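C-alpha cells in:
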C-alpha cells in the first residue's frame, strides 16, 4: 500500500465518521479494504442503538463477514479514524485482518500501540500490521470539536436552568 492510497481510504473512513457526527454519535468511522476495493464501511452507532458493541470497527467487520461469507478477513486492511479499543482489537485479531491503519491515537483506550498493542501480541495466533497517524490531525479534530460542542451545550443548558430558577 502506498501512502497516497492510505490517505484515500482514510478519507473514506473520515466520511463515515462525519455521518456518525450528524447523528450525534462519537465521530468514528471505518472502512475495510481488500484488493484496493472497499468491502464494507461503517460508523459508530453505540448511542443510537444503545449497544456497547456498535463500534465502527465491529460493525465493519460484521458487514464484511456477511458480504464475503467468511469470518476470516485475511488479506484485508482496516482503516479507522481512531485507534481501536480492546474489544475492537480483539475482533481484528479474531477475524484475521492483515493490516490496521488508524488516524488518531486514543490515550484512554487505544490497544494498537498507545496503552498496549493487542494487534501485535505474539501469544495470539494472529498479529496485524499497524500503521498510525494517517490524516491524524483531521481525525483528531473531528473528535476534539465534537466533545467541545458537547461540553458547550451542557454549559449552555446549565446556564439556562440557572437563569430560570
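Residues out:
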Amino acid at each position: 500500500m502506498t501512502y497516497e492510497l492510505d490517505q484515500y481510504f482514510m478519507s473514506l473512513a473520515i466520511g463515515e465518521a462525519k455521518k456518525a457526527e450528524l447523528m450525534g454519535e462519537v465521530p468514528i468511522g471505518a472502512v475495510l479494504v481488500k484488493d484496493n476495493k472497499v468491502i464494507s464501511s461503517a460508523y459508530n452507532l453505540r448511542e443510537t442503538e444503545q449497544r456497547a458493541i456498535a463500534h465502527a470497527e465491529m460493525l465493519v467487520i460484521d458487514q464484511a463477514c456477511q458480504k464475503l461469507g467468511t469470518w476470516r478477513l485475511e488479506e484485508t486492511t482496516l482503516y479507522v479514524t481512531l485507534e481501536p479499543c480492546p474489544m475492537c482489537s480483539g475482533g481484528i485479531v479474531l477475524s484475521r485482518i492483515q493490516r490496521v491503519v488508524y488516524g488518531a491515537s486514543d490515550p484512554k483506550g487505544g490497544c494498537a500501540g498507545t496503552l498496549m498493542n493487542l494487534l501485535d501480541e505474539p501469544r495470539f495466533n494472529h498479529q496485524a500490521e499497524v500503521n498510525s497517524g494517517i490524516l491524524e490531525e483531521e481525525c483528531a479534530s473531528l473528535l476534539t470539536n465534537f466533545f467541545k460542542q458537547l461540553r458547550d451545550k451542557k454549559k449552555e443548558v446549565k446556564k439556562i436552568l440557572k437563569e430560570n430558577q
